[in-house]
TrEMBL record:
Location (main, coarse): mitochondrion
Top-level taxon: Eukaryota
HAMAP family: TsaD
The species this protein was found in: Forsythia ovata
GO term, biological process aspect, one: tRNA threonylcarbamoyladenosine modification
Family the UniProt entry places it in: Belongs to the KAE1 / TsaD family.
Subunit structure: Homodimer.
Its job: Required for the formation of a threonylcarbamoyl group on adenosine at position 37 (t(6)A37) in mitochondrial tRNAs that read codons beginning with adenine. Probably involved in the transfer of the threonylcarbamoyl moiety of threonylcarbamoyl-AMP (TC-AMP) to the N6 group of A37. Involved in mitochondrial genome maintenance.
UniProt subcellular location: Mitochondrion
Cofactors that this protein relies on: a divalent metal cation
Gene symbol of the encoding locus: GCP1
GO CC entries: mitochondrion
Protein name: Glycoprotease 1
């Protein structure tokens, strides 16, 4: 590994201290960064503060009427995305290059191929985001990039690009938690959305119910013990011979409209578990068995199927969707109960992540929140699936609080060891909600985002 000055590489030096709080390093290196920036970019408002009062002053200068412009980069899974967002919530540009063709070909994400696909387009995607925003790199206030959770090989492409850019233009860098970004983008769309709120985050790899108490402060009420709902949608689509080019979820949603949702009585998962956790592996198996016993040949695309065959597939899609979403409904009802006890002032359920773009999911969850006198907040579909806007916005939210790393050194070696967090919990588990069924997924690599931030705040006080 190349030798790097510790004060300029907290993201990198963190790797050797994985169990130490990381965000504190951003604050301790701020003075250094401030000094550097003062020399190179004297116009940035927060940089002219006196070192002693930096933290407090930054918060006031960057509070509500700041004017930040942040580039967000996202490569944690199969979409290469970048966007430029202003701190007043204006989206200046948004570019997504999806690997839908690869997904259609392999029926899932193959990490090595996904990495190559990201590498091929990352420069172009970032450039296009800047061009569309009519800005150059030197107009940016910071670069935000997803550092986890996700596929290491894929995360690396985005982080390398972000660090190269930040190093060249002496920009601060904000490491973003992908799932936090899915939740916080709701605050960009609904500017009045305040903490605390409950969030259901549903994607290809995650199924999370979290109580968002404050920025960077999350209690995990539930997660999946095996697969996420998006994975179940994707496999169902593949086994039903659907066109995966727009990913599996939308294809199942579309076909389900033609089917009878009560035709097949799939079992609702985890009925006996009085917690907020999820399981979709069993439902996947039930779907596979139904497909096998219905003599459906996934090799024959649904577009070429006979009308009888198409109807049989539509019935499976609809029945699967009904039960998959019923599982969400049941766990959300319990989570609302728990969250209201912890934070009686919650008013909203935020639903985000790729699966939240599904209209049936939204309609069913809306009934649940209305019954409980809450409000449903769903970002528009384009901001539910992976995108750079959510990363840029989360970067803005943390940057305002002084949570960022100073610019990496220009010309950082390509083989520098990076701080990537493929398995990175968002918050600590709600102790009373711990389930026996969770035990198999306890192994973790990184302390949660919430615990890191809390540790850094304690150090500062
Ligand atoms: O959040 P996302 O874009 O990427 C991950 O972080 O995983 O979520 C992708 C997942 C995929 O499983 C995809 O099939 C699913 O979201 N998805 C949908 C819909 N649109 C995307 N699932 C159901 N209905 C949809 N309309
Ligand atoms: Zn996602």
């Amino acid at each position: 590994m190349a030798s790097l000055a510790p004060t300029l590489s907290s993201t990198i030096s963190r790797l050797t201290n994985l169990h130490k709080p990381s965000f504190h390093s951003a604050m301790t290196t701020l003075k250094n960064f401030q000094f550097q920036h003062k020399l190179s970019k004297p116009t940035r408002p927060f940089l002219s503060t006196s070192p002693g009062s930096l933290s407090a002053q930054m918060k006031s200068t960057l509070g509500s009427d700041d004017d930040l412009v942040v580039l967000g980069i996202e490569t944690s899974c199969d979409d290469t995305a970048a966007a430029v967002v202003r701190s007043n919530g204006e989206i200046l540009s948004q570019v997504v290059s999806s690997q839908a063709d690869l997904l259609a070909q392999y029926g899932g994400v193959a990490p090595k191929m996904a990495e190559e696909a990201h590498s091929q387009v990352i420069d172009q995607v970032v450039q296009e985001a800047l061009d569309k925003a009519k800005l150059s790199e030197s107009d940016l206030s910071a670069v935000a990039v997803t550092i986890g959770p996700g596929l290491s090989l894929c995360l690396r492409v985005g982080v390398q690009k972000a660090r190269k850019l930040a190093g060249t233009y002496a920009l601060p860098i904000v490491g973003v938690h992908h799932m936090e970004a899915h939740a916080l983008v709701a605050r960009l769309v609904h500017r009045e959305l305040q903490f605390p709120f409950l969030a259901l985050l549903i994607s290809g790899g995650h199924n999370l119910l979290v109580l968002a108490r404050d920025l960077g402060n999350y209690i995990q009420l539930g997660t999946t013990i095996d697969d996420a709902i998006g994975e179940a949608y994707d496999k169902t689509a593949k086994w039903l011979g659907l066109d995966m080019r727009k990913s599996g979820g939308p294809a199942v949603e579309e076909l389900a409209r033609e089917g009878d949702a009560d035709s097949i009585k799939f079992k609702v998962p985890m009925k006996q578990h009085k917690d907020c956790n999820f399981s979709y592996a069993g439902l996947k198996t039930q779907v596979r068995l139904a497909i096998e016993s219905g003599n459906i040949n996934p090799g024959i695309p649904v577009s070429s199927a006979t009308s009888e065959d198409r109807k049989a597939r539509a019935n499976i899609a609809a029945s699967f969707q009904r039960v998959a979403v019923l599982h969400l409904e049941e766990k959300c009802e319990r989570a609302i109960e728990w969250a209201s006890k912890i934070e009686p002032s919650i008013k909203c359920l935020v639903v985000s992540g790729g699966v939240a773009s599904n209209q049936y999911v939204r309609a069913q969850l809306n009934q649940i929140v209305e019954k409980n006198c809450l409000q449903l907040v769903c970002p528009p579909p384009k901001l539910c699936t992976d995108n750079g806007v959510m990363v840029a916005w989360t970067g803005i939210e943390h940057f305002r609080m002084g949570r960022f790393d100073p610019p990496p050194p220009a010309g950082e070696p390509e083989d520098a060891v990076l701080d990537l967090r493929p398995r990175w919990p968002l918050g600590e588990e709600y102790a009373e909600g711990r389930s026996e069924a969770r035990s198999m997924r306890r192994a973790r690599i990184h302390p949660s985002l919430t615990s890191l931030i809390q540790a850094s705040m304690q150090q500062q006080s």
